[in-house]
Amino acid sequence: MFHVEQNRFFQPMKVEDVKKIIRDVPDFPTKGILFKDITTAFLDPVCLNFMIDYYVDLYKDKGITKVVGIESRGFFLGPSIASRLGAGFVPVRKPGKLPAETVKKSYDLEYGSDTVEVHKDALNKNDVVLLHDDLLATGGTMQAAISLMKKCHVSKMYVSFIIELEFLKGIEKFEKEVPIHSMIKY
Ligand code: AMP
Fold it and tell me: Which residue, by CA, sits nearest to atom 3 of ligand 1?
């Protein structure tokens, strides 16, 4: 209760408020990129709780057994959502970070390629999975994570983002069978 009383928001928060709190950082990490900095939304405890409640409300009746967070900003909210849904949390990580046996998927970037990995024994055919990442840009990262889920034979998938950059049309890369939700669209 302490944090709520201390906070400057006396009205219930709305998605529009989160949108205002997210910070734009021009030319990061390279010139020409407008970086959506979500760390400002995590600074504010009311905003943080609003975001957790938002996803819990959306997915509470879906029978989610595992929340899968994508390295690294999918790790910010993923475990909190999982805990509230009564689900486990599974990290999808960059190569060489996970210690036990993994399944891997490589994907193309504008220049070169990248790989994501998940522990082979973390998921199985009984799992209903909520994949979570901070931002959908071209969709390559989430597509690769979905391929990993297929390799693990999970029974159903949902995908959630905090932000979708609609003008990049990443959403067009996804199969219609996978329900995708973005809290904020630009
Ligand atoms: P993509 O695979 O192109 O959809 O890129 C998604 C990943 O890149 C996410 O994990 C984001 O964290 C990061 N990303 C891409 N573009 C931005 C951006 N403009 N601002 C913040 N993060 C970004």
Answer: 138
Kindly state if the Cβ of 133 falls inside 6 Å of ligand 1.
yes
Which DSSP helix (H) or strand (E) runs through 55? helix 45-59
Judge contact between 183 and 15, C-beta under 8 A: yes
pTM for the full predicted model: 0.94
Q: Would you name the residues annotated as active-site residues?
A: 73, 110
Band (36; pLDDT cuts 50, 70, 90): very high
d(CA 53, CA 169): 27
pLDDT at 150 over 60: yes
* Residue 43 buriedness (CB in 10 A; 0-12 / 13-18 / 19+): exposed
Distance from C-alpha of 163 to C-alpha of 182, rounded to nearest angstrom: 6
CA 148–ligand 1 middle distance (angstroms): 19
Collapsing DSSP to helix, strand or coil, 73 comes out as coil
Distance 136 CA to ligand 1 centre (A): 6
- Cα→Cα distances 68→87, 132, 144, 168, Å: 10, 6, 13, 24
